[in-house]
Specification:
The protein is mainly beta. Strands 3, 5, 6, 8, 11, 12, 14, 15, 18 and 19 form a ten-stranded mixed β-sheet that branches. Strand 5 and strand 6 (about 115) form a beta hairpin. The termini are far apart.
């Protein structure tokens, strides 16, 4: 009686996995039978080389016999010595976390507890990485190969080892969900491997740049090659995918598709492209056969580190905020089946100088009854003017007001309808360059009539509050106030846990303010540039003055 395999789906799936594993093992045997070649250097001896490269249970005499060395005490420099791969010392080589963006978690094995992933930590064999929405993590392996795991992705680290000091590294990864981008260091010997096992195919390389998609949600898995060549295959066959091509993998029991050309890089519209100052405005021309586009910003010196990513069906985008430094914009077209094309790119720099001013008023969360409020800030050394922005959302994607002033205060040039707003300021230097904007300050505009009998709360009278931008979790702050500006004998020198300090009986006149960030290990960073604050006379603090709130961006 013939039994259909469709009646036993679990048995069939297990058989497929076993056959795939057997194929990988059989393909590894020729590698293990190969030799790694070393060139003798002056002063080398067989026992020193054996101790450095061979497994502890392999004596150096085996090396002498394998290479037919007549005199082990005399090794002419430049002589090739052959080391069988199976004899070489093998050591664990954990992956290093280069950068984390958003919510990224890890666990060991299938049943371990999930925990957050942090920059700089080491991840060993068996680690399972999970990225959330708008999240990514960048890993560096023992040979400095890099992997960027994108949002909504699952990755397992199946093999992370190196062959002693030979430079050969064996890296094997399993992409169960989502997408990864890979930049692989050229192989340094026959045992070097970089393999990504996706649900329907395996991609193996010896030095190249490529992307892998695990498929799912109606889309096929795919391998997209940006540099070099990638071998993509499963038990049904293999495809060699060259630069500028992609192959789709429909199922584990179907050979990967014939390679096809990637969609071309979009043409950036220079007339609609503004990368500096922020927010950046990006525009590009439509690409035929594209259903959407992927926009990324990466570090120019380490393009595997992602700092911004969005998918869009439009051909324009506004990027609200980016970290300072040399950055690179990437825009690529995406086909209907999810295959991503070649990148259009443009490098640019985000500078954080001149520093933004301290905001004075309106204070955070204050409601103003005037449709044209007056905004005030402190004077920043080296700033020729200040740029004010007002928006209805904290990202400032579409400011409703933007105006520039040369003093430390300005009244809105036009009426603002009642509603909730955010305002922020940035400094512009004498050459016209605008620095980064400071932290958004919430503001409400109300058309309700003013109650003439309403008085400020007693607790707010004669009170000065300084607030600055929060640093990293666990950091403390040291704040100093000084009347002369040299901080030789400051009026206030205090450490606080939160990014603010309140003084119940402030001084009058002009004060100089600076703040230092202190890490959890006690290391104190440089003080922020000193900024000036003009305080009214003491008797002015009572009736109607309320609390004076300052915002300092470090």
């Amino acid at each position: 009686m013939t039994v259909s395999s469709t009646r036993f789906p679990r048995l069939r799936a297990r058989s497929i996995r076993l056959l795939t594993l057997l194929a990988l093992l059989l393909s590894a045997f020729p590698v293990l039978a190969q030799d790694w070649t070393y060139r003798v250097r002056p002063g080398d001896t067989l026992w020193d080389l054996g101790g450095r490269y061979l497994k502890p249970d392999v004596p150096w005499a085996h090396l002498q016999a394998h290479n037919r060395v007549a005199d082990p005490y005399r090794l002419p420099p430049g002589t090739p010595l052959r080391f069988p791969i199976a004899w070489l010392r093998v050591q664990p080589a954990p992956a290093r976390v280069l950068a984390v963006r958003g919510a990224v978690q890890a666990r060991l094995g299938d049943s371990g507890a999930l925990r957050p992933v942090v920059d700089g930590e080491r991840l060993g064999i068996g680690t399972h990485l999970i990225t959330g929405a708008d999240a990514s993590v960048t890993l560096a392996f023992a040979d400095d190969s890099r992997l960027q795991l994108r949002e909504h992705s699952h990755l397992r680290l199946d093999q992370l080892s190196r062959y002693g000091h030979t430079g050969m590294v064996d890296t094997r990864l399993r992409l169960e969900q989502g997408r990864s981008s890979n930049r692989v260091t050229p192989a340094k010997g026959p045992a070097s491997r970089y393999i990504i096992d996706a649900p329907t195919a395996t991609s193996s390389v010896r030095g190249t740049q490529f992307r892998v998609s695990a498929g799912g949600q109606g889309r096929m898995a795919a391998t997209e090659v940006l540099e070099g060549r990638v071998q993509v295959g499963n038990r049904r066959g293999e495809r060699l995918v060259a630069h500028g091509q992609a192959t789709r993998s429909r199922a584990l029991d179907a050979r990967p598709d014939m390679p096809e050309a990637l969609l071309p890089a979009p043409v950036l519209a220079r007339t609609g492209l503004r990368l500096d100052p922020l927010p950046a405005h990006i525009a590009w021309e439509t690409v035929a056969q594209a259903t959407q586009y992927r926009v990324e910003v990466v570090r120019a010196d380490q393009p595997e580190i992602l700092v911004f990513a969005r998918d869009t069906a439009d051909t324009t985008m506004t990027v609200p905020d980016l970290p300072p430094g040399l950055l690179r914009l990437l825009v690529r077209a995406v086909s209907a089946d999810g295959v991503e094309g070649l990148d259009a790119q443009a490098d640019f720099e985000v500078r954080d100088q001149p520093a933004p001013p301290l905001t004075v008023r309106p204070v955070n969360g204050e409601t103003i009854t005037s449709p044209r409020p007056r905004f005030e800030w402190s004077q920043v050394e080296g700033a020729a003017s200040t740029v004010l922005q007002v928006a209805t959302e904290p990202q400032f994607l579409q400011p409703v007001l933007e105006q520039e002033g040369r003093g430390t205060r300005v009244r809105a040039a036009e009426d603002l309808p009642p509603g909730d707003y955010f305002w922020r300021v940035a400094s512009r230097d004498g050459s016209g360059h605008r620095g980064r904007f400071g932290q958004p300050v919430a503001l409400g505009i109300s058309d309700a009539p003013v109650d003439p009998g309403l008085q400020p709360p007693q607790a707010a009278r004669g009170q000065l509050t300084l607030r600055w931008q929060a640093g990293e979790p666990g950091q403390r702050y040291r704040v100093q106030l000084d009347k002369r500006g040299d901080f030789a004998q400051p009026l206030l020198d205090q450490q606080v846990d939160q990014p603010e300090v309140t003084l119940k009986r402030p001084w009058h006149g002009t004060l100089h303010v600076r703040v230092q960030t202190i890490d959890d290990d006690g290391y104190g960073g440089p003080f922020s540039p000193a900024q000036q604050v003009a305080l009214p006379c003491r008797t002015c603090y009572g009736a109607g003055a309320g609390a004076l709130l300052l915002l300092l961006l470090l």
